């Protein structure tokens, strides 16, 4: 089987794509892959380093003033021609787009050449690229009910994020061992993405001073740019607060903490639900179409999490929410159980089977 995968711009698009490719390799050792993305974004560096064949398209998002949008539209049309050249050279059996504007070029070109196509939508709000491609593709895979209900029912399946499969089958460590925390103490992990959040950090400076650490520890991921500032501010609380700039094994912390406090990125929530963690979600308001709030609402409506909008976040509110959850074990366990019910730990397996079905109908 020969597969072209396109995932552009951000890790939220790229890492689910990589997870699916890694799984397919375990099922079909003869499978060949070609990644198509931008010439200058994350995927153009990460994918070649992993040893995959890679082709870059000089495309830009349809953003900016009207003149810039018009220029980018002409660039897109030019990228369609290059995409068709790539398709004719590689001769894929299927083209799978994971979002981001490079996906539009290669998936649309494949559709025009009658090559089977599939797109994957990680968020509850459909991204612009996938909206453009809805009528062009053979199959749509999504992760949330909201998106599922907006896609055409005859070609859409709700199978989840491939990252869920990775963490569900990963060998994980215990947070108590990782941070030398006594096993009887509860743990709260606070992480606002790899870069951290200056606005949330400002609130947390006060919140972490108000919290009572008689029976729990906090692991606070500051973000690399804010570590020194937070260390200077909270260093005197270091017996119960473990300040770190970055975490490279987030699934282990999610699986073994009592509460995870996080943003509502698609990959993060896929991991939280696959691992059955109780969460307090502070969605980022700085994302396209406020999609993180809608992602978070899927968990809140399923009684798997609590949500605090950043505009409503205060030290007092945060401390109250954490304390209530830690003190109510029945509620905590209920959140974890409901998160598990939302999880899609077999996402890779299910998407792979859907690929095979799509090719059978070719």
UniProtKB/TrEMBL annotation:
GO terms for molecular function: UDP-N-acetyl-D-glucosamine:N-acetylmuramoyl-L-alanyl-D-glutamyl-meso-2,6-diaminopimelyl-D-alanyl-D-alanine-diphosphoundecaprenol 4-beta-N-acetylglucosaminlytransferase activity; undecaprenyldiphospho-muramoylpentapeptide beta-N-acetylglucosaminyltransferase activity. Pathway: Cell wall biogenesis; peptidoglycan biosynthesis. It is found in: Cell membrane. Its EC number is 2.4.1.227. Residues 187-334 form the Glycosyl transferase family 28 C-terminal domain. It catalyses: di-trans,octa-cis-undecaprenyl diphospho-N-acetyl-alpha-D-muramoyl-L-alanyl-D-glutamyl-meso-2,6-diaminopimeloyl-D-alanyl-D-alanine + UDP-N-acetyl-alpha-D-glucosamine = di-trans,octa-cis-undecaprenyl diphospho-[N-acetyl-alpha-D-glucosaminyl-(1->4)]-N-acetyl-alpha-D-muramoyl-L-alanyl-D-glutamyl-meso-2,6-diaminopimeloyl-D-alanyl-D-alanine + UDP + H(+). Keywords: Cell cycle, Cell division, Cell membrane, Cell shape, Cell wall biogenesis/degradation, Glycosyltransferase, Membrane, Peptidoglycan synthesis, Transferase. Pfam families: Glyco_tran_28_C, Glyco_transf_28. InterPro entries: GlcNAc_MurG (IPR006009), Glyco_trans_28_C (IPR007235), GlycoTrans_28_N (IPR004276). CDD domains: GT28_MurG (cd03785). UDP-N-acetyl-alpha-D-glucosamine binds at residues 10-12, 123, 194, 247, 292. It is a peripheral membrane protein. Residues 3-140 form the Glycosyltransferase family 28 N-terminal domain. The keyword Flavoprotein does not apply. Cell wall formation. Catalyzes the transfer of a GlcNAc subunit on undecaprenyl-pyrophosphoryl-MurNAc-pentapeptide (lipid intermediate I) to form undecaprenyl-pyrophosphoryl-MurNAc-(pentapeptide)GlcNAc (lipid intermediate II). This is UDP-N-acetylglucosamine--N-acetylmuramyl-(pentapeptide) pyrophosphoryl-undecaprenol N-acetylglucosamine transferase. It comes from Massilimicrobiota timonensis.
């Amino acid at each position: 089987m020969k597969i072209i995968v396109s995932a552009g711009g951000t890790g939220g698009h790229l890492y689910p794509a990589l997870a699916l490719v890694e799984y397919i390799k375990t099922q079909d050792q003869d499978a060949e892959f070609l990644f198509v993305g931008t010439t200058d974004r994350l995927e153009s560096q990460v994918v070649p380093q992993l040893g995959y064949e890679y082709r870059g398209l000089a495309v830009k998002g349809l953003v900016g003033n009207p003149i810039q949008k018009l220029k980018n539209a002409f660039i897109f049309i030019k990228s369609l021609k290059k995409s068709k050249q790539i398709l004719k050279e590689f001769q894929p059996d299927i083209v799978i787009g994971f979002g981001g504007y490079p996906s539009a070029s290669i998936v649309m070109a494949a559709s025009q050449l009658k090559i089977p196509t599939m797109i994957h939508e990680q968020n509850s709000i459909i991204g612009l690229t996938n909206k453009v491609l809805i009528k062009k593709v053979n199959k749509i895979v999504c992760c949330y009910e909201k998106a599922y209900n907006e896609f055409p029912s005859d070609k859409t399946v709700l199978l989840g994020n491939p990252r869920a499969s990775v963490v569900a089958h990963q060998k994980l460590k215990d947070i108590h061992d990782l941070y030398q925390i006594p096993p009887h103490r509860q743990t709260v992990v606070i992480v606002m993405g790899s870069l951290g959040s200056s606005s949330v950090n400002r609130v947390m400076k006060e919140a972490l001073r108000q919290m009572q650490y008689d029976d729990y520890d906090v692991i606070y991921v500051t973000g690399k740019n804010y570590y020194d500032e937070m260390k200077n501010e909270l260093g005197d609380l270091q017996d119960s607060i473990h300040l770190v700039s970055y975490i490279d094994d987030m699934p282990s912390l999610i699986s073994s903490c009592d509460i995870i406090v996080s943003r509502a990125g698609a990959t993060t929530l896929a991991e939280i639900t696959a691992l059955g963690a109780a969460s307090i979600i502070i969605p980022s308001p700085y994302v396209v179409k406020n999609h993180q709030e809608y992602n978070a609402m899927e968990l809140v409506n399923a009684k798997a999490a609590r949500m605090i909008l950043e505009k409503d976040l205060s030290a007092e509110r945060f401390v109250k929410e954490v304390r209530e959850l830690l003190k109510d074990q029945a509620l905590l366990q209920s959140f974890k159980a409901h998160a598990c019910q939302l999880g899609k730990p077999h996402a890779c397996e299910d998407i792979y089977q859907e690929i095979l079905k799509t090719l059978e109908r070719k």
